[in-house]
From TrEMBL:
Family in the record: Belongs to the IF-3 family.
Record GO terms (molecular function): ribosomal small subunit binding; translation factor activity, RNA binding; translation initiation factor activity
Highest taxon of source: Eukaryota
Signal peptide: none
UniProt domain Translation initiation factor 3 N-terminal: residue ranges: 80-146
Compartment(s) of residence: Mitochondrion
Pfam families cross-referenced by the UniProt entry: IF3_C, IF3_N
Residue ranges of the region described as Disordered: 250-279
Job of this protein: IF-3 binds to the 28S ribosomal subunit and shifts the equilibrium between 55S ribosomes and their 39S and 28S subunits in favor of the free subunits, thus enhancing the availability of 28S subunits on which protein synthesis initiation begins.
KW Disulfide bond (keyword) present: no
Residue ranges constituting the Translation initiation factor 3 C-terminal domain according to the UniProt record: 159-243
Origin species: Carlito syrichta (Philippine tarsier)
Protein name per its UniProtKB record: Translation initiation factor IF-3, mitochondrial
């Protein structure tokens, strides 16, 4: 019994000593290890996040600077004394060309005449500036605003579609022609698809004749965006009509006026010949 008790006591003593030795070894390792090397995995993502955030901030700042510079180039405003170029081309308030001048001389001239400096053309070398009064700058802004309002705004082109058979009656064809003309006057494109009728005696070019008949109802208004072409193995014809451009409208009016003048001259010449014949 005493031997068993001594054996257990020895085992307990050895176990306690082992735990103490292990605890002391871990404490020595922790003290000698630098803090930056304890958690290398956790610090790496934090560094990458900082790099990414800095890069994103740089890209955003560059884009903002470009937008701001572009906005300042398009605005008609007083430059003041902030002249970035040493030599500039100057025009005075009366439109007289003063030639190339040093920016110090330009600033001195602004103070003497109580004028303001406006950038006129930054795409030439050296850039062109003009001396202006406050009233002139105000009037020029109003003029540019009116020009901007009068400028037509680009709108997306809409395409309408009409599909019917070549057996269509004349009344229905006139109705569709009027609808197509209304769309053309609203600056829309119109896609026309004419299917071949079931009549065996129908001419082969009847579908194209219908297309040209529709176009003839809109002289000086519409023309072909794409000419008639056979589709579905010749079972249908498709084309697209569009409104005339400003240039085409002007050319059409001039041709019409020339034709009317020629007709008048021809009629007056015929009248003179008939008068001479009667005499």
């Amino acid at each position: 019994m005493a031997a068993l008790f001594l054996k257990r006591l020895m085992l307990q003593t050895l176990k306690t000593e082992s735990n103490c030795i292990a605890r002391c070894f871990v404490q020595q390792v922790v003290r000698k290890t630098p803090p930056a090397q304890l958690f290398p995995i956790a610090s790496a993502p934090r560094l990458s996040c900082l790099i990414h955030a800095k890069a994103s901030s740089t890209v955003t700042d560059t884009q903002d600077e470009r937008k701001k510079k572009k906005r300042n180039d398009t605005v008609f405003s007083n430059t003041g004394r902030k002249i970035s170029e040493r030599i500039i081309h100057v025009v005075d308030e009366n439109g007289n060309d003063l030639g190339h001048m040093h920016r110090a001389d330009v600033i001195r001239l602004l103070d003497e005449r109580h004028l303001r400096l406006v950038l006129r053309n930054a795409r030439v070398e050296p850039p062109e500036y003009q001396l202006m009064t406050g009233i002139q700058i105000h009037q020029e802004r109003l003029r540019q605003r009116e020009i901007e309002k009068a400028r037509p705004k680009a709108r997306p082109t809409l395409t309408k579609e009409v599909i019917f058979s070549s057996n269509i009656g004349q009344h229905d064809l006139n109705t569709k022609s009027k609808q197509i003309q209304q769309w053309i006057e609203k600056k829309h494109h119109v896609q026309i698809t004419i299917k071949k009728g079931k009549n065996a005696d129908e001419p082969e070019n009847k579908m194209e004749e219908i297309v040209h008949q529709i176009l003839q109802t809109m002289p000086g208004i519409a023309t072909f965006a794409s000419r008639p072409q056979a589709i579905k193995g010749g079972k249908a014809v498709m084309c697209v009509l569009r409104p005339l451009s400003k240039k085409e409208e002007t050319a059409y009016r001039e041709a019409l006026e020339t034709q009317q003048r020629d007709t008048l001259h021809k009629d007056s010449g015929s009248d003179r010949e008939s008068d001479a014949w009667h005499q």
